[in-house]
Amino acid sequence: MSASSLVTTATQERALLSPKRRRLIGNGLSFLALGAVSLVMLLPLYLMILISFRTADRAFVYPPDLWFTSVTFENYPTALFRLLPFGLYVRNTVIIAGLVIVGDLLSCSLVAYGFARFRFPGRDLLFGVLLATLLMPFVVRLIPLFILFQKLGWINTFLPLVVPSYFGTPLFIFLMRQFFLTIPAELVDAARIDGAGELAIWWRIMLPLSKPVLAAVAIFSFQNTWNDFLGPLVFLQKADVKTIILGLYGLMGMQAEWQLVMAAVVVAVLPLIAVFFLFQRFFIQGITVSGLKG
């Protein structure tokens, strides 16, 4: 059979496929590719959970054993209660994360409302300067912040980690501003005609209509605070104010066995996974809608 005949046959077979069948085949290939990538991404998490349930002599074996054999539950109470006070660390982290989330939602939404609905000279330039601060790493500001907080007597308290969130976070301000621009301006104008002030419009109209982006910001804020290592390492030096990430760092510094470390890491990761899955719909909707309008 000649090459031209093969090309003709392939073209005819492709023409025989209906659009619906082609769409199903394309979706199937996409799902297979996404499934393969997901398995690769989930493999480290699976190995972490697997090792956390193993005894010391079975933590790392060769050839690798990828099944739950020689399971023990002693690693979790040993790592969480006997070696370090992880309950205290979790409580400290939850307090800090809760206060930071409240600060980010209030301050960032208020600033974003101003950039989205107020018109004043230099607004776009000021917003550009705000976005430019995203390029400044935290380590550049670390020493001035430490000197400032030390002069204020805030070292070894939660204040250095909580108070900055009440002055706005550039990334969250950007996300909220983009979302506020999608809300019809007629709603704001109607509220002004009815005599509502700007704070009342922000509180009674903008925030209730912005639940998706508020959920996305809350998840980002919780994740950043829960995973923050450098800030607590510098500002929290006493044992009774440390966070869970510092607890994991201390556990590794004690040269604890790896199955104990993995058990503590599993406990530290579970809240992040739970929060994401509980608010996944709002998170995706908030991120998607925030990028529709510039």
Write out key terms for the chains shown.
15 helices; flat; mainly alpha; 294 residues
Query: Beta-sheet strand percentage?
Result: under 5%
How would you classify the helix and strand content by structural class? mainly alpha
What is the count of DSSP helices, taking H or I runs of 4+ residues? Answer: 15
**Average residue pLDDT:** 86
Which radius of gyration do the C-alpha atoms yield?
A: 26 Å
**What is the straight-line distance between the termini?**
57 Å
Number of domains: 2
The stretches of 5 or more residues where confidence is low (pLDDT under 50) are none
Label the overall shape: flat
Give the topology string: H per helix, E per strand. HHHHHHHHHHHHHHH
Q: How many E strands?
A: 0
CATH architecture classification name of the largest domain: Orthogonal Bundle
Please state the oligomeric state of the protein chains shown: single chain
Assign a percent range to the helix content: over 70%
Q: Quick one: CATH class of the largest domain?
A: Mainly Alpha
